[in-house]
Specification:
The chain is about 20% helix and about 45% strand. The protein is α+β, with helices and mostly antiparallel strands. It has one domain (about 5-109): HesB-like domain (Hypothetical Protein Aq_1857, Chain: A).
């Protein structure tokens, strides 16, 4: 199972990279950390260093990297970008999450 990005998420990641003048070798790192209201929280950041066991995906021209431990929770996830009024944000659609929090970035597995 891979990780997926919707067209809107892919477009937003590309726009953020361009707006921040990030070089080509920068990729999107998706991860999971302990904490948050439901026990675990998602993380998204730009990065340039890969670990020896990282999984790499190329989705619509966006390079996404996930560390091995996070991949246990993120396999099959879809990252979306939703615009509501004047604000927008990334949302996670995770079939492995047993419950999620109203904040949208915290879950339990």
């Amino acid at each position: 199972m891979a990780v997926e990005l919707t067209e809107a998420a892919s477009k937003q990641v590309k726009e953020l990279k361009q707006a921040q003048n990030l070089p080509e070798n920068v990729f999107l790192r998706m991860g999971v950390r302990g904490g948050g209201c439901s026990g675990m929280s998602y993380s998204l950041e730009f990065d340039t260093e890969k670990g020896p066991h990282d999984r790499e995906f190329d989705i619509d021209g966006v390079k996404v990297v996930v560390d091995t431990k996070s991949y246990l929770y993120l396999a099959g996830i879809t990252l979306d970008y939703v615009q509501q009024g004047l604000t927008g944000g990334f949302t996670f659609v995770n079939p492995k999450a047993k419950s999620t929090c109203g904040c949208g970035t915290s879950f339990s597995a």
